[in-house]
Write a structure and sequence with these properties.
single chain; 369 residues; alpha/beta; Nucleotidyltransferase, domain 5; 5-stranded mixed beta sheet; RNaseH_domain; RNaseH_sf
Length: 369
C-alpha cells in the first residue's frame, strides 16, 4: 500500500481530565476506512491526548504497510510542532513528539495538515467515546467503519438556492505567459491586451449570472485583481478584497519556464510532481498545501456569507482544487480538467454540507481569437 490518510484527534474533559483519543486510517481515493484506533487514557491534558491519537494513527498506517501518509488533525499545535514550525516547549509533550517523529521516519514521506473539526468528525467521535469510557459514562454511538460522517445523504431533490452560498469562480484573463504556455505561479505577470478584453467580457457575464453579489474576492496578484476590478465595476463598484489563500501554487524554479523547458530540465522531478500532489516543484509548493489553504478559504466564505453570492477571481490550481473537493473527486481530476483564461465556474454550498457544481469553465462570453 503506497499511501493513506490518517485522521486523528484527542481530548480531555477538564484539561486535565478524563481523556481519550481516536484515529482513522482512510484510503486517499475512495475515503474508505481501513483501520480505526481509540483508547481511554485516564486523566491527562488535551494536548497529550491529541499526540496519543496521532501516534495511534501512524502505528495503524505502519501496520498496513503504507509508504506515504497524509496526517490530518484539528489540533493546530500538534500539526505545527510536527511540521517543525513551532517549538515544543512543554516537557510533557517532548517524549510524545519524539515517539511520533520516530514513527514518521518509518515512512517514505509524511505530511501534516490542519483541518477544521467538522472535517474530522469520525476521529472526534472515537475520541469522545474514549473520553466517555475514561469518565465512566455509557458509550456513545460511533460512525460505522467504512462510512464518512462528513458526507451528506445523497439526494436528487431540488434545494432552495436562496439558502446556499454560491461561489462564482473566475480564472484571471490571459497574460503573455498564458499565451506562451509558461508556468505562472507567484510572478506578478500583468494581463495582456487580450486578457483585458476577456476581463471586460467576463464582467458582463458575471453581472448577468448574479446581479446581487455580496463580495468580490481575489488573489493578490495583479492579473487577478485587474480581472476582479472589471467584474466589481460591472456590479456597481463593489470593493475588491485580496485574499492570500487564493494565490496560485508556488512553482519555484519552474516559474516562467515553458512546459517543454521544464520537461527537458527537470524530467524526474516533473514525473514525480505529476504522480503525487504531495510532491513540490523544486523550491516550490505541493498541491496538498495549496489544497489546504483553498479549503480554508472556501470554508471561510461559506461561514461569512450564508445564502449569498461571492465572486472569487483566482488561478488554475486553486480553482481546480476547489472543484475537485466539491465533486469529491480524486487527484486524477486535476490533470483531466482544463480551465481557460477568464473561464467561469459556479458551485452552491448549503448549510448541511450539501454541494452542487452548477457549471465548469463557461467560456461562451469570451471574444473569439
Amino acid at each position: 500500500m503506497r499511501a493513506v490518510v490518517v485522521e486523528a484527534d484527542g481530548g480531555s474533559r477538564g484539561n486535565p481530565g478524563p481523556a481519550g483519543y481516536g484515529a482513522v486510517v482512510r484510503d486517499p481515493d475512495s475515503g474508505e476506512v481501513l483501520l480505526e484506533r481509540s483508547e481511554a487514557i485516564g486523566t491527562t491534558t488535551n494536548n497529550v491526548a491529541e499526540y496519543r491519537g496521532l501516534i495511534a494513527g501512524l502505528e495503524a498506517a505502519a501496520e498496513l504497510g503504507a509508504a506515504r501518509v497524509e496526517a490530518r488533525m484539528d489540533s493546530k499545535l500538534v500539526v505545527e510542532q510536527m511540521s517543525g514550525r513551532w517549538q515544543i516547549k512543554h516537557p510533557g509533550l517532548r517524549p510524545l513528539a519524539a515517539r511520533a517523529a520516530a514513527l514518521v521516519d518509518r515512512f517514505d514521506a509524511v505530511t501534516f495538515s490542519w483541518i477544521p473539526r467538522e472535517r474530522n468528525r469520525h476521529a472526534d467521535a472515537l475520541a469522545n467515546a474514549a473520553m466517555d469510557a475514561a469518565a465512566g459514562k455509557p458509550p456513545r454511538q460511533v460512525p460505522d467503519a467504512g462510512t464518512d460522517p462528513t458526507a451528506v445523504k445523497p439526494t436528487w431533490e431540488p434545494r432552495p438556492s436562496t439558502t446556499a452560498t454560491r461561489l462564482i469562480l473566475v480564472r484571471h484573463g490571459e497574460t503573455e505567459w498564458t499565451a506562451q504556455g509558461r508556468y505562472a505561479g507567484r510572478a506578478d505577470v500583468p494581463l495582456s491586451d487580450r486578457g483585458r478584453e476577456q476581463a471586460a467580457a467576463t464582467a458582463v457575464r458575471v453581472a448577468e449570472l448574479a446581479p446581487a453579489v455580496a463580495a468580490v474576492v481575489s488573489s493578490p496578484l495583479s492579473r487577478c485583481t485587474a480581472t476582479a476590478e472589471a467584474i466589481a465595476g460591472a456590479l456597481g463598484g463593489l470593493p475588491v478584497r485580496p485574499e492570500a489563500d487564493w494565490v496560485e501554487c508556488d512553482f519555484g524554479d519552474w516559474d516562467g519556464k515553458t512546459f517543454a523547458e521544464v520537461r527537458e530540465g527537470w524530467p524526474g522531478e516533473l514525473d514525480a510532481w505529476l504522480a503525487s500532489t504531495r510532491v513540490a516543484p523544486p523550491g516550490g509548493e505541493p498541491f496538498t498545501a495549496v489544497g489546504q489553504r483553498v479549503e480554508r478559504a472556501v470554508t471561510a466564505l461559506r461561514e461569512a456569507y450564508p445564502g449569498e453570492t461571492v465572486v472569487v477571481v483566482s488561478h488554475v490550481s486553486p480553482i481546480k482544487l476547489a472543484l475537485r473537493d466539491a465533486l469529491a473527486a480524486s487527484d486524477a481530476f486535476l490533470h483531466r480538467l482544463f480551465l481557460d483564461a477568464a473561464g467561469v465556474s459556479m458551485l452552491d454550498m448549503w448549510p448541511d454540507g450539501g454541494i452542487a457544481v452548477r457549471s465548469v469553465n463557461d467560456t461562451a462570453h469570451l471574444p473569439a481569437r
